[in-house]
Amino acid sequence: MPSSFDRIVVLDFEATCQPGTPPSPQEIIEFPSVIVSLRDRAVEDTFSTFVRPLHHPTLSAFCTELTTIRQQDVDAAPPFLDVLAAHQAWLAGHGLLDAGGPERFAFVTCGDWDLQTMLPVQCAAAGLPVTALPRVYRRWINIKKVFLDSMKKAKTTGMPAMLQALDLELVGTHHRGIDDCHNIARIALALAERGAKFAITGKLAASHYPELPLELQWGDRVERAFLKKRHLASLLGLASGLFHTRMVRAFLADGPEITDDDPLAELAPDARIRLVSARDRPAT
Ligand code: AMP
Ligand code: MG
Ligand code: MG
């Protein structure tokens, strides 16, 4: 994964809402994105569509007031799973999504809510496990962090405040997803102009991943177990308990050592993990 991306895709969901606590499950009603080349300092393409909520199909007056999204907009829109597939096809059409290949871009959001909270909630509401999402949807760059890093003195980080600090006008309507995307893209371009680096700031928390059945192998012993939290420390702890010996290293079967939590997010159910204990001779 590059330490700094020169292509980003700004994403800003709008969702069902009402004053106070949102409807449960909260659902995405607008799914917009803007591809930005930070190298060429240009917007390359735009993806914009409404999404029809299935659990709470009637928008509150509050929601329409906040977002400008009307009942007829969502009534005529495809449901989430169709929009997600179209979004992936759009990214693939730009050469941005090849399975297994290196990540060519990162999503940029204003805050962590879009990909840390809303997308997992929407996936659950649609019956889609988060592990079915391409990895790129499970990590992101929070523009507020990039802003705070590069504008050393700035404290407030709402989108309007960031625009103001950068001498940019708010274009369009705040809380309309596609307008928010364009404004966030302008903030990103202004920060890139000032030399800001765009590196991943957040990853989907381990608590969002389902429990994982695994085969744990130590020497010629194999035990089946369920990994609850996809952390390397949890895996070593689980194996240490099972084999009554302190495990210090874990390897993908016949593969590389697992040195951080990332490979655990990608593991398939029933994968085999090879363990090395503190007492074993060093693994080669
Ligand atoms: P935003 O990207 O800031 O436009 O917000 C994304 C979503 O968060 C909106 O579509 C709403 O579902 C929710 N939201 C934002 N602001 C409010 C608010 N003041 N009250 C209730 N929900 C809100
Ligand atoms: Mg937003
Ligand atoms: Mg928005």
Automatic annotation (TrEMBL):
Q: Does the keyword S-adenosyl-L-methionine apply?
A: no
Q: Which residues form the Exonuclease domain?
A: 7-197
Domain of life, per UniProt, equals Bacteria
Q: Which UniProt keywords apply?
A: Exonuclease, Hydrolase, Nuclease
The UniProt GO MF terms for this protein read: exonuclease activity
InterPro entries, per database record: 3-5_Exoribonuclease, ERI-1_3'hExo-like, Ribonucl_H, RNaseH-like_sf, RNaseH_sf
Q: Which CDD domains match?
A: ERI-1_3'hExo_like
What SMART domains does its record include?
Answer: EXOIII
Record's PANTHER family?
3'-5' EXONUCLEASE ERI1-RELATED, 3'-5' EXORIBONUCLEASE 1-RELATED
State the protein's name. Answer: Exonuclease domain-containing protein
Origin species, per record, is Nannocystis pusilla
